[in-house]
Structures are given as structure tokens and as C-alpha cells.
């Protein structure tokens, strides 16, 4: 059976692929992208914190409250950036949609050519 440490290390590769694809996408909100990259910071902090907890306290990271909470701050900040990024994108999208509605634009209806070609 595969150890949890090996599984954790292997799980980074699909996540790095995910980051590569969303980084190239022109549709990902920039703030959300920073949040997804911040998750890597969380991982980078958690690994040495877990090693320190094991060596210094003889316990897993989850059982050393102050250290675990300190590491989790980075995950919380990453999640906040992701939520704020998508919130900002939704607000912008609604504003564009509202503006188009005010101008009489409806992308679901066929558009009439109103130009006078006579």
C-alpha cells in the first residue's frame, strides 16, 4: 500500500498541471489565480512545520495546535483570495450583462442588422 507521504507528494503533480492550465487561461480571475498559487505556499509551509512537530514534539502537526494553526493561516488566506477573485469576476460579469441589457443587447436572440444599406 502507498504511504500517505508518497500519495501527498504525487498529488502535487496534478495540482501543478492545474496551475499551469489556469495560469495560461485568460478567463481565470487574477486574484483567484494568486489564491490557487497561495495553496502551494501553504504546502511549502506545512511540510517543514510537520517535520518540526515530529522532531521537536514527537507528534504529528495536527496535534501541535500553535504550529498547526500557524500553518493553516496560509490556507485560509489562499481561500480568501480565491473567493474574492471569483466574487470580483461575478460582479464584473453582472455589470457587463446589466450594461448590455440597458443597451438592448441580448446574446440569446438573433441580432438584427439595423444599418441602412440603401
TrEMBL record:
Coiled coil: none annotated. It comes from the Bacteria. The chain crosses the membrane at residues 6-22, 34-54, 66-86. Keywords: Membrane, Transmembrane, Transmembrane helix. InterPro entries: DUF3593. Pfam families: DUF3593. This is DUF3593 domain-containing protein.
